[in-house]
Amino acid sequence: MVNAHDVPSAKLISALAEQMKSVSSVQEPDWAKYVKTGSHAERPPSSSDWWFTRAASLLRKLYIHGPVGLTDLERAYGGTKALHYFPKHHRDAGGSNIRKILKQLEQAEFVTKTPKGRVLTPKGRALLDKVSKDIFAAMSEGNKALARYA
Predict the structure, then answer these.
(1) CB-based contact 94:38 (threshold 8 Å)
(2) Which residue of 3, 60, 97, 138 is 20 to 30 Å from 39, comparing CA positions?
(3) What's the pTM value of the predicted model, to 2 decimals?
(4) Residues with Cβ < 8 Å from 3, sequence gap 6 or more?
(5) What's the total number of domains in the chain?
(6) Is residue 150's pLDDT more than 70?
């Protein structure tokens, strides 16, 4: 059985982002065009559909890493910030956009909250498995050596 571990993350996230656009409860708010993703970022994201890409990335991260809290996600999506002539230091990502995306994914019943953090529901896990299977099938058409693993 093919799952999210077996396909390249970039292909999985881009395919999931396209799926997220059709989910009614996952909608980009009006302010998302103007907001930075954290104090380490100099500008807002250049991609117009970054909200859906981040939602797909969060789903994959929950699939791979199990119960994950908001603080762990802020740390994972953070980056480095240059501080004048001092060495660069890590800054966590902004929690507002991550929290709002997680709430939207909870409304879509892909994610649920537990005492240890957020986890994927069976519906969310099935979505990632289905998309992974489709990507792997497309990859195995181009490479016959992969076809035996499908």
Answers:
(1) yes
(2) 60
(3) 0.90
(4) 63, 128, 129, 132
(5) 1
(6) no
